[in-house]
UniProtKB/TrEMBL annotation:
Chief place of localization: membrane
Name the UniProt record assigns to this protein: Malate permease
InterPro entries linked: Mem_transp_PIN-like (IPR004776)
Location of the protein in the cell: Membrane
A cellular component annotation (GO) from this entry: membrane
Length: 352
């Protein structure tokens, strides 16, 4: 199939087109509502908290409520390995990327490049395109992100050693708790106490008692409703945040423009290059869903926590704010392009 045919196929796939249009339209709606002051300056923060504390944990846990097989387990392990390896690679590569910058500015640019908004920006888009399978791999991929964000990211920006409070934030975060709990159930469901349930077709099956999608639908259904809130609320919050910022100063900041190019274009390209090399050499082979999930997660704008570190520790806070704004705009523009690129690459025989 030619590249032109792949592009045509992508734009005629209603699932992909709907996911892209939903993302753009709801972000624009949030932007419009903030500009018209129907959303006040607190709405974006409130929506973000609801997404991070309630909706995304429900989405992460729900993704693991599915049967496991040898293929999906192997895929999950490879995603976990790469989710840790890529941050080590980015820590090393980000240094030469910003050699011309010194001191706080270089440190800030490096941390902002390494850590994107994978949770808040990436997972909702992955879920819209790849469904439960994509969210499952995204949640596993994010384990490495959380480890490095709350360790390396904090130490680099604060100049201090790791604090107990930061370790607690890393492991007591609702999304991390939901991810590890769901991951445990998913992996060990065959070894947990079993309960006999009746399927929709009338057949009986034995499932782990913690598979609440089968054993406690009355509990699973509210979680499913909350999980569905993640994408629209996250996109409204992004739009509301953009609607509260003045663009002119940020658009004239060449450093922020250079950073946005690196974050949204170069970092995903590096992932594709490394994963392609690993696939060709049979060291690490990922499916098209895993590949798409990883690329979308790495094409996300500045992580909120990373920007907060820069502001809290006074490490070029203005740069962090401008970079966050420009990278968000760049990501909104380029995510549809990356989806097309992913579809073209996924058609290559090196990916399963």
């Amino acid at each position: 199939m030619t590249i032109l045919q792949e592009i045509q196929q992508t734009f005629t796939d209603m699932k992909i087109v709907s996911a892209i249009s939903s993302t753009l339209f709801i972000i624009l709606l949030g932007f419009f509502l903030r500009k018209k002051e129907l959303f006040n300056d607190q709405v974006g923060k409130v929506l973000s908290k609801v997404v991070l504390i309630v909706a995304l944990p429900a989405l992460a846990f729900k993704a693991f409520m599915q049967d496991i097989d040898a293929e999906s387990l192997a895929e999950g392990i490879e995603v976990l390995i790469w989710g840790i390896a890529i941050y080590i690679i980015l820590i090393l590569i980000s240094k030469p990327m910003y050699l011309k910058y010194k001191g706080d500015r270089q440190d800030t640019l490096r941390v902002l490049t390494i850590f994107g908004s994978t949770t808040f920006f990436g997972i909702p888009i992955v879920g819209a395109i790849y469904g439960a399978e994509g969210i499952l791999y995204a949640s596993i991929f994010n384990i490495g992100y959380r480890i490095f964000l709350y360790s390396y990211g904090y130490i680099k920006m604060s100049g201090l050693k790791m604090e107990v409070g930061n370790i607690k934030e890393m492991f007591l975060n609702p999304i991390i708790i939901a991810t590890f709990l769901g991951l445990f159930i998913w992996i060990f469901q065959g070894y947990l106490p079993q309960v006999s349930v009746v399927a929709e077709d009338g057949t009986k099956a034995d499932v782990a008692f913690l598979r609440i999608d089968q054993t406690a639908p009355w509990l699973f259904q509210p979680m499913e409703y909350l999980a569905r809130l993640a994408s629209p609320l996250a996109w409204l919050a992004i739009g509301a945040t953009l609607g509260a910022i003045k663009f002119r100063a940020a658009l004239t900041d060449r450093t922020s423009l250079f950073y946005s190019f690196n974050k949204v274009i170069i970092v995903p390209l590096l992932n594709i290059a490394f994963l392609s090399l690993l696939a060709v050499t049979n060291v690490l082979v990922v499916s098209d869903v895993s590949l798409g999930t990883i690329v979308i997660m790495m094409a996300t704008p500045t992580a909120t926590v990373a920007a907060a570190y820069a502001i809290s520790f006074d490490r070029d806070a203005l740069l962090a704010s401008n970079a966050s704004l420009l990278s968000t705009i760049t990501a909104v523009i380029f995510i549809p392009i990356w989806i097309i690129v992913i579809n073209i690459i996924a058609g290559l025989p090196i990916f399963g």
